[in-house]
Each structure stands twice: as C-alpha cells, then as structure tokens.
C-alpha cells in the first residue's frame, strides 16, 4: 500500500476484497497520526480517530502539549471523511507557521511541518504495528516502566521548558514532592511485589488528581514529583491536602492483604523571577518534604520564602 496524492494531500490507499478488509490487510491499513517532531513532547504521536482535535496547553484541548509557548487552545486539526486533514490556527498568541510563514488555515500534506511555539508537528499515515513499535520506543525513553508515568529525565526536560516560560512571564509555579511513609517496612512486611503494587496504585491516584496541563513523574524509588502551572499557594495546599487524604483513605491491597499507606508532602510555590533556578525550587520542596517526615509523616509542609534568595 503506498500513499497516493489527491487534492494536494497524501492519502493512504487500501485494497479491499468484496468491499471488506481481511485480517492481514486490516493490520496494514494506514491511519492518520499527528506526530510531534520537536519540542518538549518530541516523539509523542496521536492517532487521529475523531473528527477534530484541538491542540493546546489547557485541559480543554483534545491533545495537550507541554510547550509553554503554545496557547491554551492553539490550533485544530479536522479530519474529513476522505481523510484529508485541515489545519486551522485558533487565533493563538504566538501563531502557527509553515515554511517560515504564519498560517491561519491549510490543507495538510505529509511534507508539511507546522511550527507552533517550539513544537514542530506533522501528519503521518501509519499502520498499527508501525505506530505501536514507535510508541514502545517512546515509552522506554520517557516513562517509568513500573508506573507508566513520566520518568525523572523526561520530567526535568519538560519542567525546564516550563520554568523558562515562568521566568519570562514572572508566572506562578508550584512544585510538590511526595514520598511514601515507611515504605521499606512495607516491602519487608508484605514483600517487594506488594510494594510495587502500592507504587502503581499511588501513581494512578496522583494521575487522577492532576490536570492534563500539569506534570507528574516518578522522581526516585518511592518519591514522586508534580509541577502545577499557575497555581497559587492556597490552591496548591488544598490540592496537596486532597491527595494526602485520598491516599490515606485508599484501600491498597495486594493478593488479599490490605496495605495501609500514607504519604508525606512538601510544597514550594513561587512566582518565578530571573534569580530563581529549577534545581533550587525542587530542593526547597524536597526540604519541606523532609520536614513533613520529621514532623510526624502523613502531613504536608509548605516552604516559606522571605526574599528572592530562598526559604525562611
Ligand atoms: N517495592 C519497591 N520498593 C522500592 C522501589 N524503589 C525503591 N524501593 C524501596 O523503597 C525503600 C525506601 O526506604 P527508605 O528510603 O528507608 O524510606 P522509608 O522506609 O520510606 O522511610 P521514610 O521515607 O522515612 O518514611 C527502600 O527499601 C527501597 O528498596 C521499587 O521500585 N519497588
């Protein structure tokens, strides 16, 4: 099956027997994918199954891109029945570009590379198995094998982009670190696989509580890190308190054994200025987490600042 050119777009063609596809053909059917070629989401790809996809930074977007230079609702890809795809910019702040020129509306071909913020994307037509093997490579590089959430390296890469944006815009940022209390004891009491199950369930609880536009990663063994965009300190505290309670009330269980679990949390909220650095903000959140441990665990501590230089 080779893609054929029609109405200016490259479309996949498929051979059908009696109007239907046999199993092998079905496996080779080419479907449209949105592929992210560069920027903080490089390597991600999304199968375009719906009629339209809004791309943006906010929770309301169908495809959320972490690039801080992308608008909350930046652009939309509309997939027509004949599989042609129309690109439209949604009056984004920084615009969308093709070949160096700002575009509002454009019928896409597979050669087109759209630039939005620092993100370059294009449409590709792939069969399921090809897309699956590429997704597997992406997962291995950017996600944690046990929990499926971002790994530390991928988190730092994205968090640095977000941090640079916050610096330029003097924006609010919250870093939340959390760590399972007495996790070694759980491994010792219930076994390592039970400990693994706790980590998987915990990451699912945290994921559920996150907005799509925020970041969650496994930072170390039983330590997780979250970056909350534009979140004032009261909202960050309320959110952290909710996850602490959600974890405390969750019936963690492994092979019939109940595993009571709590977490300690450190929160650092900061309006980011030119003097700030991401490692420092993370260290301060980690110090607050350490304090939460010292003060009895199953609690949260908030890092306090009295100057641009650091915490009180
Ligand atoms: N099951 C499991 N255990 C892990 C994993 N990664 C790290 N650990 C264990 O997590 C435990 C962390 O123990 P500590 O750093 O002593 O901390 P803790 O027992 O949680 O005590 P506090 O943090 O002070 O409440 C160690 O026993 C590690 O072996 C993992 O992927 N799976």
From TrEMBL:
InterPro entries in the cross-refs: Diguanylate_Cyclase, FHA_dom, GGDEF_dom, Nucleotide_cyclase, Rev_trsase/Diguanyl_cyclase, SMAD_FHA_dom_sf, YscD_cytoplasmic_dom
Domain of life: Bacteria
Transmembrane annotation, as ranges: none
MF term (GO), any: diguanylate cyclase activity
Any one GO cellular component localisation term in the record: plasma membrane
Catalytic activity from the UniProt record: 2 GTP = 3',3'-c-di-GMP + 2 diphosphate
GGDEF domain span: 171-305
Residue ranges of domain FHA in the record: 53-103
GO biological process, one term: cell adhesion involved in single-species biofilm formation
Cofactors (names): Mg(2+)
Catalytic class of the enzyme: transferase
EC number(s) per entry: 2.7.7.65
PANTHER family documented for this protein: DIGUANYLATE CYCLASE DGCM-RELATED (PTHR45138:SF9), REGULATORY COMPONENTS OF SENSORY TRANSDUCTION SYSTEM (PTHR45138)
The protein's name: diguanylate cyclase
Taxonomic source organism: Methylomonas methanica (strain DSM 25384 / MC09)
């Amino acid at each position: 099956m080779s893609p054929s050119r029609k109405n200016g777009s490259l479309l996949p063609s498929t051979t059908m027997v009696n109007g239907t596809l046999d199993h092998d053909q079905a496996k080779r059917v080419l479907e449209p994918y949105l592929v992210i070629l560069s920027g903080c989401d490089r390597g991600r790809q999304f199968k375009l199954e719906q009629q339209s996809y809004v791309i943006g930074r906010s929770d309301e977007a169908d495809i959320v891109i972490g690039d801080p230079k992308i608008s909350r609702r930046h652009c939309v890809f509309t997939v027509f029945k004949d599989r042609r795809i129309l690109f439209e910019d949604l009056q984004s702040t920084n615009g969308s570009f093709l070949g160096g020129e700002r575009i509002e509306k454009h019928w896409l071909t597979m050669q087109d590379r759209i630039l939005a913020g620092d993100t370059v994307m294009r449409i590709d037509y792939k069969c399921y198995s090809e897309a699956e093997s590429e997704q597997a490579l992406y997962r291995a590089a950017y996600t944690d094998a046990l929990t499926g959430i971002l790994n530390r390296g991928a988190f730092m890469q994205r968090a640095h982009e977000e941090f640079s944006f916050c610096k330029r815009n003097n924006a609010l940022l919250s870093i939340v670190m959390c760590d399972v209390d007495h996790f070694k004891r759980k491994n010792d009491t219930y076994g390592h696989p039970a400990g693994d199950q706790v980590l998987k369930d915990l990451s699912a609880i945290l994921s559920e509580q996150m907005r799509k536009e925020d970041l969650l990663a496994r930072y170390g063994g039983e330590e997780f890190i979250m970056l909350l965009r534009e979140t004032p300190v009261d909202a960050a505290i309320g959110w952290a308190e909710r996850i602490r309670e959600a974890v405390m009330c969750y019936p963690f269980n492994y092979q019939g054994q109940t595993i009571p679990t709590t977490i300690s949390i450190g929160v650092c909220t900061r309006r980011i200025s030119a003097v700030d650095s991401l490692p420092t903000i993370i260290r301060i959140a980690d110090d607050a987490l350490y304090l939460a441990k010292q003060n009895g665990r199953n609690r949260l501590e908030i890092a306090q600042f009295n100057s641009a230089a650091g915490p009180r």
